[in-house]
Design a protein that fits this description.
Blueprint lengths: L6 H19 L6 E4 L4 H16 L6 E7 L9 H11 L3 E5 L10 H7 L9 H13 L4 E4 L3 H5 L4 H7 L3 H14 L2 H11 L1
Parallel strand pairs: 1-2, 1-4, 2-3
């Protein structure tokens, strides 16, 4: 726990720890690959890694790999990938998501490669991404997978309600609609209610 007195202090403390976590994972004599979906967590990892590489080194190259959903769908994050490419003057390799999603094979192999023993229905995609990164010379793959589950939780609503902060809880529940599609926002509000 980090004792901070303001949101700004918490943000700075998070940034310091986040940068250090990425820096530690970039120690390599080989290129480091990053799985970049275009979402906030993986994009932040890629951008932090590239900024660190340009500043203090740590690895010879940061390679971005992304799986993209159908154009125009809610999973189409190409615009964000293009913005990263423009900002850092890099190219992020893309793989077609639809061709790689299906039944969940190789549960034992998944558990071996993961940091936690979870079976992921996106394993064929992850495995393909690992193979592409390896073929490009990378021996390490950074990922923002499961970052949403770690950094975004509505479990804190219980703390707000228990403390009697009803208005704050209501404001936060309403704000979910600013960040998520209507169905997703309803799904996130349900456990709080």
């Amino acid at each position: 726990r980090v004792p901070c007195t303001s949101f700004g202090e918490y943000a700075e403390a998070f940034h310091e720890r986040f940068a250090e976590a990425v820096r530690r994972r970039m120690r390599s004599a080989y290129p480091v690959a990053v799985s970049v979906s275009g979402g906030l967590d993986s994009s932040a990892i890629f951008c932090q890694a590239e900024a660190l590489r340009r500043g203090a080194g740590g690895c010879p190259a940061v390679l971005g790999f992304s799986y993209v959903g159908p154009e125009g769908s809610t999973s189409d994050e190409r615009a964000y990938l293009e913005e990263i490419e423009r900002a850092y003057d890099v190219t992020i390799a893309r793989m077609d998501l639809a061709a790689l999603v299906g039944m969940t094979p190789d549960a034992r192999l998944q558990a071996w490669h993961g940091e936690v023993p979870l079976v992921d229905y996106l394993w064929p995609l992850t495995h393909h991404l690992q193979a592409a990164a390896g073929a490009a010379g990378a021996r390490r793959l950074l990922s923002g997978h499961w970052g949403d589950q770690v950094l975004h939780s509505t479990a804190y609503f219980a703390d707000l309600l228990r403390a009697g902060a009803w208005r704050t809880a209501a404001r936060h529940a309403k704000a979910l609609g600013d960040w998520f599609l209507p169905g997703e926002a309803r799904h996130l509000r349900r456990p709080a209610v």
